Structures are given as C-alpha cells and as structure tokens.
C-alpha cells in the first residue's frame, strides 16, 4: 500500500469520526437540555390546567352554595327533582379526585359535572355558563336574579351574593 493513500484514508477516517463525535455530543447536549426544558414546560402547563379545573369547580361549588342557601331559607323553593339534581351535582364536585393527578377519569368526571350543572340550570330555567373569566360573574349574577321572585323574596341571599361579586 502506498503511504500517501494510507494518509488520505486516515484523514478521511478521522474526519468521519470527528463528525460522528460532534453529532453524538450535540445529541447528548440537546437531549439533556430537552429534559430540563420539557420538565419545566410540563410543570407550567400542568399548573395552568390544574388552576383552570380548580377555578371551574369553584364556580360550580359557588352555585351549589347559593342554591343550598335558597333551600335553607325556603325549603319549598325548588322541586324535589331540582333538589335531587343539586345534591347529585354536589356529590360529583365533592368527589373530584384533586389528589390523584394521574387519574385517567378526570375528563369524564368533568364532563359529568358539566352535564349535571346544565341539567340543574335547565330545570331552573336560568342560563349560567362557566366561561373561565372573572368578568362573567356579573352576567351570571344577573341570570341568577332572573329566577322567579319567590326564590329571592327573603332578600337575604341575593344582596350578599351580589356584594361578594362586586368586591
């Protein structure tokens, strides 16, 4: 073999090995950076999604609280069917698995809660929707005031409810 061709082969082999080592080093660096940024981004997305779910469940819990207050003031304000649906909604909200982040049924549970909430609203003939914004609270309060007057005649619930929304 010719010493010149041997030098050329060594040079080409070193170039290929250099490219492969650079590629491998870049891959390892990118992988490490990806793990770190992926965990950070995943945490941020998880916190945001968890906050949104908590806020929505809080909205439903607030409505349940108002409806239960109405029933305490006037036990005959709602039909037995409405009372039963409110109680079922409360059971669904109270049973939400806050401490089980890997529960695969979370979406199904949220959908059941939303459906039950819509059923209660339909039975009460009010239009309340959780839209994920604080600005909807005043609109929701206006809709709740459209309940038949016998639900509000005692004057104890609505002023307190509206005061809390405005402050």
Automatic annotation (TrEMBL):
Source species, domain of life: Eukaryota
Pfam family, one: Yae1_N
Annotated Essential protein Yae1 N-terminal domain residues: 26-64
UniProt similarity note: Belongs to the LTO1 family.
Name the record gives this protein: Oral cancer overexpressed protein 1
InterPro entries hit by this protein: Essential_protein_Yae1_N, LTO1_adapter
Organism listed in the record: Rhynchospora pubera
